[in-house]
Amino acid sequence: MPKYVFEFTEGGKDEKDLLGGKGANLAEMTRLGLPVPPGFTVTTEACRRYLVDGAVPPELRVQVTRALRALEDRIGRQLGDPEDPLLVSVRSGAKFSMPGMMETVLNVGLNDASVHGLTQISGDARFARDSYRRLIAMFGRTVLDIEGALFADAMDDLKKDRGITDDVDLTADDLDELIDSYKKIVQEQTGRPFPQHPREQLDLAMKAVFDSWNTERARLYRRRERIPNDLGTAVNVCTMVFGNLGGDSGTGVCFTRDPASGKQGHYGDYLPNAQGEDVVAGIRNTLTLDDMAERDPASARQLFGVMRRLETHYRDLCDIEFTVERGKLWMLQTRVGKRTAGAAFRIAAQLVDEQLITLDEALTRVTGEQLARLMFPQFDPAAEKKLLAKGLAASPGAAVGAAVFDSAVAVKRHAAGESVVLVRRETNPDDLEGMIAANGVLTSRGGKTSHAAVVARGMGRTCVCGAEAIDVDVRTRTARVGDVVINEGDVIAIDGTTGEVFLGDVPVVTSPVVDYLEHGLDATLAGADGGGNGAGLDEETADLVRAVDTILTHADAARRLRVRANADTADDAARARRLGAQGIGLCRTEHMFLGDRRVLIERLVLADSAEVRDAALEALVPLQRGDFVELFEAMDGLPVTVRLLDPPLHEFLPDRTELAVKVAVARERGEDTAHDDKLLAAVERLHESNPMLGLRGVRLGLTIPGLFAMQVRAAAEAAADRITAGGNPQVEIMVPLVGSVMELHLIRDQADTVLAEVAAQRGVRLDIPIGTMIELPRAALTAGRIAEAADFFSFGTNDLTQTAWGFSRDDVEAAFFAHYLDVGVFTVSPFETLDAIGVGRLVRIATEEGRAARPGLKIGVCGEHGGDPESVHFFHDVGLDYVSCSPFRVPVTRLEAGRAAIAEDDTAEGLAGPR
Ligand code: PEP
Ligand code: MG
Asked: pLDDT band for position 535 (50/70/90)?
């Protein structure tokens, strides 16, 4: 029989798959001897079984009974006992944390009888009633699916009737009345009374937690975070401890370092006399841990001790939930905490300095995506701004957009192409879609651990929360600060790094991390190039830049993949080089056929004799040569892969319909249309139903005599020019869309002739390898043959994805990818992250067969996947030599290539050990 239930004394932090994150860490803390209320965890396996069968496995009921009895015996109380009840919380806890996405029910075990027992043992009638009414409402909402507003309205009506505004002013008798109203709501809405039997409450709550795995918002969250749908959640059943037993009780959330900035020191929110979710919900504004230390020094001291112990144990930032019950500290949860990108780098570097982790480990604590976030622009410090309010800097970044007051409007306006900032009093899980659509999130209530802050940080969205000066009225869709009124659609700007909120647009400047990446550490720290304003950096920013430098330098030392850039112009190449590119992996030559040069292409297409055609090609040579000279100069000493023309020629000709209209109109007017007639005929001749699979790439090169030879000549002459000027060009010529080795042989013959000619004419030695793209399945499957004629391979994974799947890359993303993501055919678009088991298989085959035929064959990637972190790990594993990505992604890719190398070392260790 599978073991579905584990007591907290049985598991440990490495069992997240089975016990979920929360359960595994509760067990770990229990093992460490920290004060965790006793309890047990129902495994994710039980949930998966339930979701498949649609029913609770019978063995689970038995195992729950045994665990519950053991718990009761340990505590010496029974669940829901009328005299002295044991009460439990029932909380979800999946392998990956999904803040606010799933369900929790507190105070399970309370009923009409045990509420009196609770009154007796607590000596507090008000507290007991309050706990019971909370159970009915929470149970009603999450287990019985009753609209939460019904409970909230009943509470509001009662408060109005009593003439009070604060919940805490309701007396025990008031709460009794409220309990009756709540029970009536349950009866009316479900046709059944509120379940009185404690075990029934427990069973239903557990089922509700299982079911919450599949709510719409949980699915949406998982899709975004790329969490697989089939993991299921664990359920934690934990003895209740109470933070709402008066002034010497309370509940809080804390971090062992600041998760927003990464600064060292205690950090958290505390609410005296409160229960569970009050803190995270951001309903009341919270105290800091320093305030807590003043009010309750003994509990704070215990807490600080536990925080240090946990950080030493986990060797990372820990995020902790705790409750103080009448002066006694209880740990309710811990986990390695989510953090902003900047905090991730700073904390990793601090932990290295503190000798708690190694540099290799530091590299595993940051991601390329986080580095990419640090490269986003920031508000210009020198710009004029109208400061409206200041809140908490919850998630950094600079967001400007139209103020919107609800999730639906955010989604709508975003879909229409508008930038929006979502403004709410506080957010709840239903706001998730709006938060995704918005550039930034602003709330007037709640601390840095409120839902808005946690979720925004998780998704890298800019967020300012708790801006109390702003009075948000969601009904009228306005926000007021003093006499300033912000209406829906008014532009506001929020700075998630400082917590500032501005009225109107604010210009943005480059991030200091980009300054560092381009100009180096010393220049940036001195503020010479960096900072955008010539001033030195503030200490926090300087610390961040140093942390990025430490970790990226280590990634460079660790990585085996070289990183090149896709760049077509000297400017892009120079920038890529500053950002650390080790060459150009793809120079697309098509832009060299645009602008003024279109006429030459027209002439080429319309040529009715070899002389006219050659003249057109001849005229293109000096223009192309000029482009190449600049490019080779910018990348002097580093390889530059020049790809011969790829797109179909009609892309350089006028639009068919427009030209037809032009001809018709001209004819109507009696004008001479001879040239346009000829052009239109050519356009018609070249028209293709499916140009992506038509006359492009090497097919064009073989069909238009002299076209590729002209490009090779231009590149060779440019190389000769650079050599003569004392440079060191490292040119490589690449042939696109090859499917058969014969195509490559034919082009190679032409190219070799041209190269020999230019070398002889110019009296220089030209060492220019000729390679091919592997971007068709046939090329991948015949790579061994193709390698005979290729000096190198470069995977064009854009076309390889298109052709392996039969997806027209220009059409499918807009047409149906959203639906495919919804129904789970993909978790991510295969054009974004390489489809490792399909397209990746072709990459593996081609690499193995190419290298078998030609040992040491140099192989790279130049499709978009070269800049995608997950794909970079794949390319590392396959053993490629380099990846090429857009210039701005180069630092991200350097970091990920380093991370891939470290991860490989881990695997190697694992393989060397016992099996
Ligand atoms: C590719 O197909 O991956 C590639 C890099 O070429 P292009 O995107 O220019 O077709
Ligand atoms: Mg291609």
From this structure: low
Which residue stretches of 38-124 are H helix?
44-53, 58-75, 114-122
- The predicted pLDDT at position 277 comes to 64
Percentage of the chain with pLDDT > 70? Answer: 96
Give the DSSP H/E element, type plus range, for residue 393.
strand 392-395
* Sign of the torsion formed by the C-alpha atoms of 722, 724, 730 and 736: positive
**Residue 568 Cβ contacting ligand 1 at under 6 Å:** no
Q: In the chain, what are the domain boundaries? A: 5-239, 250-339, 342-371+513-555, 377-509, 559-648+688-910
At the top level of CATH, the class of 250-339 is: alpha beta
The residue whose CA is least distant from atom 10 of ligand 1 is 799
Nearest CA to ligand 1 atom 3: 796
Is 451 considered catalytic here?
yes
Distance between CA atoms of 406 and 492, rounded to whole angstroms?
15
pLDDT at 529 over 80: no
Q: What pTM was computed for the model?
A: 0.83
| Catalytic choice (414, 451, 650, 876) | 451
**Atom 6, ligand 1: which residue's CA is nearest?**
796
Strand order across the 392-395 sheet: 386-390, 500-503, 491-495, 398-404, 420-424, 440-443, 462-465, 392-395
- Superfamily of 377-509 according to CATH: Phosphohistidine domain (3.50.30.10)
Q: What is the pLDDT of residues 141-196, one digit of tens each?
A: 999 999 989 999 999 999 999 998 877 788 999 999 999 999 999 999 999 999 99
Q: Are 147 and 193 in contact (CB under 8 A)?
A: no
Cα 437 versus chain centre, distance: 14
862 is catalytic: yes
Strands (DSSP E) contained in 482-526 are: 484-487, 491-495, 500-503, 508-509
Is residue 354 over pLDDT 60? yes
Catalytic residue among 862, 865, 873, 876: 862
- Are residues 516 and 548 in contact, defined by beta-carbon separation less than 8 angstroms? yes
